[in-house]
Amino acid sequence: MVHAISILGSTGSIGRQTAQAARRLGLPVLSLSGQRNIDLLEQQAREFHPRYISVMEPDAARELHQRMSDTDVEIGTGEESLVKAATIEGADCVVTGVSGSIGLRPTLAAIRHNKRIALANKETLVCAGDIVMAEAARYGAEILPVDSEHAAIFQCLAGRDKKELRRILLTGSGGPFRGWSRERTEDVTPEQAVKHPNWNMGAKISVDSATMMNKGLEFIEAMHLFDVTTEQIQVLIHPESAIHSMVELLDGTVIAQLGTPDMGLPIQYALTWPERKASETERLDFAALGSMHFENPDLNKLPCLRLAMDCARAGGNSPCVMSAANEEAVWAFLQEEVGFNDIYRLVAYAVDAIPYIASPSLDDILDSDRRARDFVRKSVY
Length: 381
Ligand code: MG
What we know:
This protein has 381 residues and is α/β, with parallel strands linked by helices. The chain is built from 17 helices and 11 strands. The longest helix has 19 residues.
């Protein structure tokens, strides 16, 4: 189990649940970060007494600084402050609950400080998985997946020789529009898209779940985390979300991890690993569940998933371009500037338009990320 943590994105869905876990486990929280929700940041700061808080928006940072003037907490702003929050001395684990590729630099910095990464920010591995995994191996930093599917796969593979793994069965509920045609999703509103049937999550990931881009990002995340090829991952729709993913071993044995859909569980395990502690999470009631269903995803109805799998096969900077373009397109959708189906169109255009780089450096990745975002912004306005 870890001894003290930093929480990046502490005011978001993952961050708030991490704060709950820290409270329950009696874990000190040495740094926090947020975008602009200073009411919650102040509340968390007064409870956990961190040494450092990163606030992305300068005006909000100034106001929090005034409010906290009776304490000696240091407050910073901008992207550099996120790196500082991630590398604070004394914390041996960083929970990366920020959304989007903004998580990449602080995650790399924390890896170089040999901290455990409780990885809830999938865009980091999607954009720069080769670089991040190589750095983690070089510095001996542990990466514990917080994404429920990857936490499940991690547990299914625990203590097993990698050679025993034949393939990963990556499950997904199918989101709120499972089985809908492209015609039917044309008029979907942000309000409809953020209502997930099983999981309670932030806006960006909820929209990604609705387009199934989330499963595509998880597909790429799994390739990097578990060092498998695209052929070794099968996406499987499982509407009940009781199984959080499975592995199939060489001899045909399948091992699954099950539980109620509660992110508190993978968060706690990433902090307590290799130990396991009691939790207050609701227990799975098999009799109440009754039955479980499975089907193959229809890639004709799920163009975002198909595109992500194509980008996974293409490798290079394609996943980065796709993910960055998707972030901007989802943002435009949430602002009601484009329609639901435009998300796919914009991302596909960006993947076509931005030049392919087979072995991108970190600078190439950051540049591809910027160009993809610019491309989408210009296409929207
Ligand atoms: Mg997930």
